[in-house]
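Might I ask for a little of your time on a matter of protein folding? Here, with my thanks, is the record as I have it:
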Amino acid sequence: MVAHKVRRLCVGLVWLCLVLLTTDASARNYPLFVVYTTKPVKVVKRWNPLALYLSKNIGETFKVTPLLYDDFIREVETGQPALVVTNLLNYGALKEKAGLIPIAVPAWNVAGQGIGEYGAVIFARKGSGIGAPADLTGKVVMVPSRYSLAALVGLKTLNDLGIKVTDLALIKSVKTHENVVFGVVNGAADAGIVRTGTLEEMAEHKAVNLDDIVVINRQFDAFPYMHSTVLYPEWLLCATGSLPAGIVESIKKTLASMDVTHEVSLQMGLWGWKTLEEGTLPSVAPLFDIQKMVP
């Protein structure tokens, strides 16, 4: 009797294994990895319309998988077939290990304009005597952190203009962009570097008066926010190198057809997508060089 039960159990386990193997092979489920910081449900809500539409349109199953930063890096580094939403710095760090292939940049619908890029604002208090990059020599500059793309882009811009990191008296990291603004306005630092849009958003909420701010090396172009630097893609949708090439091409074609009136664009607040080819993204190597010099 015992032998019979054991035999039935073994047969059942073999059958279960076969079912699982068959299901995995036929379902072709792929994660869409995204980093979250506080609430994973927000990440799922933001990106799920895209995952559902790609699943329906391409015939594969994509599932939004929110991960904390360290888990995100670990999972992407395995090189498993997946889609990845990330920023330019993470792309640069993971490109070789995961064979990341850039697919497209999402442009968000901001007041009827497609915005898919951002940069940095280098600023000081009005009346501080600081108005040009050269004025920052020997000064204290505040940044969110050494891992902030905006901070690195701003410091690289200063470096390109002849003001090296070593020319500054001190670089203070204060965790958030808002803390940088408050620190500069309140005199805790001579100047600050934040991402584009920060000053305008804080001004809208009456947290800062833009008349009290001087933007250093201000650029004037069609970009709607004050900025001191060139602009970089804000988010990248990438594929790991092991995701089948045919699927990657299908995703590109699908995204290219999404304009501001598309159902997914309306759900996500998108203007559309700018599809990419390898080699078209700006190099992040100079930013990593700057990062090594930031305490």
